[in-house]
Amino acid sequence: MASSSLHLLLTLLTISSSATATSRHHRIPAHNYKAALNKAAHNYKDALTKSILFYEGQRSGKLPPNQRMTWRRSSGLSDGSAMNVDLVGGYYDAGDNVKFGFPMAFTATMLSWSVLEFGGIMKSELGNARTAIRWATDYLLKATAQPDTIYVQVGDANKDHVCWERPEDMDTQRTVLKIDRNNPGSDVAAETAAALASASLVFRKCDPSYSKILRKRAIRVFAFADKYRGCYSDGLKSYVCPFYCSYSGYQDELLWGAAWLHKATRSSTYLNFIEANGRTLGVDENDNTFGWDNKHAGAKILLSKAFLVQKVQSLHDYKDHADSFICSLVQGTSSCQTQYTPGGLLFKMHENNLQYVTSTTFLLVTYAKFLTKSHKVVNCGGVIVTPKRLRAMAKKQVDYLLGDNPMKMSFMVGYGPKFPRRVHHRGSSLPSMSAHPAKISCGSGFSFMHSESPNPNILVGAVVGGPDQHDSYNDERSDYFQAEPATYTNAPLVGTLAYLAHSARQI
């Protein structure tokens, strides 16, 4: 699992250390960002193709004839039967065989946002990106088919984790978990609404009927999230914690969901909601971590567009909120709260740090786009930060991920000459069905897990958790902090890579 019980502790340690991070770590002079532009560009187009292909390796359900990750086969074909519902499909979140609705919904939202901002320059990959989104939203429509009910998980992670087996061989209990009026989950519900709403915009022109279904469902799901408030991990703690506990609460998701409903419906209902509830939902909080758990930074950037580009004057404060987030990342300013490794990588957490790198770089290039359109800059305590600098910051992080790092190693599987070979991923680490048709039982798979041999199946495009704070990576399958990929790590990277593939020379 790409998240663990250390998540909360590490988050608290990160917050407590943020005030002194810039004094303890080497600051790069502000003018040095220009040096990032002079390095030879990576093959961002190839990386983009692979970052989307990765999702075919995470598919659950009945695989289509055009499945490109051919070592995978259909799996989870009876999911939902324990509750007499159809929950076949969707994605396994990371390296195990559980379907968690919370990170899956965030994955769909970020894939959709990637397409909405940069789909016009994705060229041949736009269709594949839409397919990746639809694989998630088709499942989310099933999960939300009953009013005031959302099926939020299939599989028991605690039981799944005592096995090391292919998805095609699963024999662990496919426990089905749900939220409803009596056991609310505003966090996962509002994130699901955001996923459906953002995807409705993706399909608005190419599939209007599907778009309408998504938008209508998003409205209903958000109403449920708002009316029956609570954290889903309060009622489902033994199943979702420590894996995907809602550590940040549900307020950030309500703001995030309302922002996407406002964008998708253009209804004053959601604008009024944001205006009335923004502060109580935490928009003033000075958090600078954006990911599957905390959406505040993303909501600030998204809502800033309504003011900067669409001139919604009532949201003028969101430019200031977004600027504060940006300034917390910029080295050499008094407001920097972010730690960087000696090699220059943004470092937030010991577990799956690259998820925060990819989500942050997406916000950087996206906000740069909004600033450029509105002819604005960011003022960080007297230091003027231009859109060009934000793009250079993002490029430097992506280049590190793709190989410009002390290890001289790409952290995207299948990209470049040197990349992780022992990924913490069951299907990738075990022989494929074609190579080993016989069933590999729950316990016997651990002989492969503990093997020093490279994974027999290449999970092309997967971005692993990444190096530690000292830029070190051990490529050990058992180290899920560093070696496990996740769907929500790739999702925002898709948008950033699309931008870089098209515009690197213009940065």
UniProtKB/TrEMBL annotation:
It comes from the Eukaryota. Keywords: Carbohydrate metabolism, Cellulose degradation, Glycosidase, Hydrolase, Polysaccharide degradation, Signal. SUPFAM superfamilies: Six-hairpin glycosidases (SSF48208). It catalyses: Endohydrolysis of (1->4)-beta-D-glucosidic linkages in cellulose, lichenin and cereal beta-D-glucans. Belongs to the glycosyl hydrolase 9 (cellulase E) family. PANTHER family: ENDO-1,4-BETA-GLUCANASE. This is Endoglucanase. It comes from Deinandra increscens subsp. villosa.
